[in-house]
Amino acid sequence: MLTTCPRDCYDACGVLVVKRNGAIRHVRGDPNHPVSRGRLCRKCSIGYNGAYLDPQARLTRPLRRVGAKGEGRFEPVSWEEALTTIAERLRQVEATSGGQTVLNAHYTGTFSLLAYFFPLRFFHRLGATEVDPDSICNKAGHVALEYVYGTSLVGFDPRTARNSACILVWGANPSASAPHADEHWLAEAPARVIVVDPVRTPTAAAADLHLQPFPGSDAALAFALLHVIVRERLVAREFVAAHTLGFEELEPLLAACTPAWAEETTGVPARLIEQAAVLYGRGPSLLWLGQGLQRQRTGGNVVRACALLPALTGNLGKAGAGFLYLNGTQSRRIDETYLAAPHLGPDAPESISHMDLANCLEDRDRSQALFCWNINIAASNPQQRRLHRALRREDLLMVAIDLFATDTTDFADYILPATSFLEFDDLVASYFHLTLSAQVKAAEPIGDALSNMEIFRRLAGAMGYREPELYETDAELIGTVLERSDVGEDFASLAAIGTVTIADEPVVQFADLRFPTPSGRVELASTRAQADGHPRLPLPLADPRPASGRLRLLSPASPWLLNDSFANDAKIARRLGPATIALHPDDAAERGLAEGDEALVANETGRLRLLVALSDAVPRGVAYSPKGRWPKREPARANVNALNAGEKADMGGSTSVHGVEVTVCSA
Ligand SMILES: Nc1nc2c(c(=O)[nH]1)N[C@H]1C(S)=C(S)[C@@H](COP(=O)(O)OP(=O)(O)OC[C@H]3O[C@@H](n4cnc5c(=O)[nH]c(N)nc54)[C@H](O)[C@@H]3O)O[C@H]1N2
Ligand SMILES: Nc1nc2c(c(=O)[nH]1)N[C@H]1C(S)=C(S)[C@@H](COP(=O)(O)OP(=O)(O)OC[C@H]3O[C@@H](n4cnc5c(=O)[nH]c(N)nc54)[C@H](O)[C@@H]3O)O[C@H]1N2
Ligand code: SF4
Ligand SMILES: [Mo]
Predict the structure, then answer these.
(1) Any idea what DSSP says for residue 468?
(2) Probe ligand 2: pick from 196, 273, 658, 661, max atoms within 8 Å of CB?
(3) How far apart are CA 39 and CA 5, in angstroms?
(4) How many angstroms separate the alpha carbon of residue 131 from the centre of ligand 4?
(5) Has residue 22 got a pLDDT over 90?
(6) I need a labelling partner for 319 at 20 to 30 A (CA). Which of 203, 287, 465, 505 fits?
(7) Best mutation site among 59, 291, 564, 624 for ligand 1 pocket (most ligand atoms within 8 Å of CB)
(8) What is the pLDDT averaged over residues 36-47?
(9) Domains in the chain, ordered, with CATH?
């Protein structure tokens, strides 16, 4: 039978589940799926046949804490007992300090629609404070693109690549983060490929041109590309006059941004800037704006600057052109408002940034209870040691919902076991391809695990809530979503084919050249940005280089892990080996470090011992240590986020995790 991988991954692969006597024998790729073509990525083909199916690895019963917080000692309790006690404590919190002192931390641990959105109905009803989910990942880019284009959620249709002469991949590493898009979509596109990444990733190594700016200097690079584009008369003057605002303010800024200046500022040779500008400027060109790109202190400005490229070159509204940050569900007419039912809550609900979570948990007036579901904050959030300390607070009611006993669930008062995607029906909308897919129940839940939806229906019941929205069944939810989406399938017919693509022919992004900004045009200069305290225009900025002796630490996606998922799978853990830090050989030599040495990596926020891996794929001044390891499985019970101060980017209270600086020396 067919189902779909709901991990937070651009690919959204089709999955084939092979069953015997009702039990799952093997989970593999659907041979007929346009993306997976019969193969899942390495991590999922191991993890879905390993930890995901293993009752020893999975959480199977609700658990109540018996040890100290964080110690990880629990005893089993019934669902009834767990939910009744949680509801009692929540009512106390509500009565004494208000629903807003309940913090709701969640993200994309599963990205299927119901399991992502439905629990929000409960938290709206409760009036909880949401920990802004995107602030841990990609919020700066969203805010920036909304200023320029009025939306960050309308991207190009990847199928339009057949009409492109150039694909510019800027700050994404699909070789890890979208392995099928890398192996098939990008490799098979007729276009020339330009990659902009400080690191020579496998995607960069396979590209026609690789530009290696120093991290955080991309806005300067974008301005230099535009300088060449103006000089070479590749600006689409008519398009700019008809569909953009503010070019006359922008143009004077470009004059000084020569390739020679940018070589100095970004480290990218002027010759490569010239080549890339002409190739992109001639078009038709696609621009893929990665999420890695904006995890920088000035990440919002970076994305605004890069977003000028399609507008000034007229690479919009035609086949083979456009940009993509994320394709939101609107293109598939998914009614997110229906799914999340914000009308159940206050009109102006509070939210905080993940960058402020540790701080907020230290403040009893602001936080009395914490829910964590679809997220492993003890591994993925900044200020790791401080956060772990805050989570030990005895008076904080903490409820964690997961498939596995993670670092986060170890801190909980109650752990509730969630079903895996193989155990419930749902829908998956890729954020890259314009597809909608069925996630189909292939097996009974392991142990007493329940889906996120059922857990929150039951908790709503224990709270005595009456709103019918809190009790809609999965079948009703799926039925309504499909009906409104207009894809012409019911769940049974969608399940039989696995995936539908919304149109037969590639969709042209912004075909009508109307942009959902206040002016209806692309706002190169933005009054809204200005009103929010940002410059009117993006600026040709570059972050200062690290002070002497320090390195810029990048911790992006690992090909073997999916965020904080799979690190507990025994086979994957063996393949991963111990945590490493990749250094340029000259940076290592300067510090007296050789391959395999133990290095002490440190800054004001924390310290960590990591094994040195020499690599000339990493430029001088940069260190590389991928995310996703579980603190409790590491020798120092910490991962790379022990070094992350949680400094906010310039927009949206968003993470700037790739802006961290460290010293590295012999341990
Ligand atoms: N240093 C560093 N840190 C980073 C990043 C970085 O680049 N560098 N990237 C950041 C980014 S982009 C992100 S998105 C975050 C992600 O970080 P997390 O959200 O912490 O990681 P995930 O692995 O996506 O999912 C978290 C948990 O969801 C659980 N889960 C899976 N399915 C279900 C389900 O159906 N129900 C429930 N209740 N739980 C489920 C998984 O078992 C997993 O433990 O990390 C951020 N942290
Ligand atoms: N295998 C795997 N796949 C994943 C994930 C995973 O953890 N593992 N995570 C998923 C999630 S939640 C997300 S958000 C996406 C993220 O996936 P991507 O959008 O690919 O983002 P990252 O992996 O954070 O970083 C991509 C690249 O950005 C580069 N980079 C860092 N700083 C800069 C900079 O200043 N300028 C430029 N030009 N490049 C820079 C890094 O070197 C890295 O190669 O991937 C998803 N897919
Ligand atoms: S994580 Fe991504 S690449 Fe791997 S199976 Fe899932 S959708 Fe496919
Ligand atoms: Mo993410």
Answers:
(1) G
(2) 658
(3) 12
(4) 15
(5) no
(6) 203
(7) 564
(8) 97
(9) 63-136+334-501 (3.40.50.740), 156-324 (3.40.228.10), 550-666 (2.40.40.20)
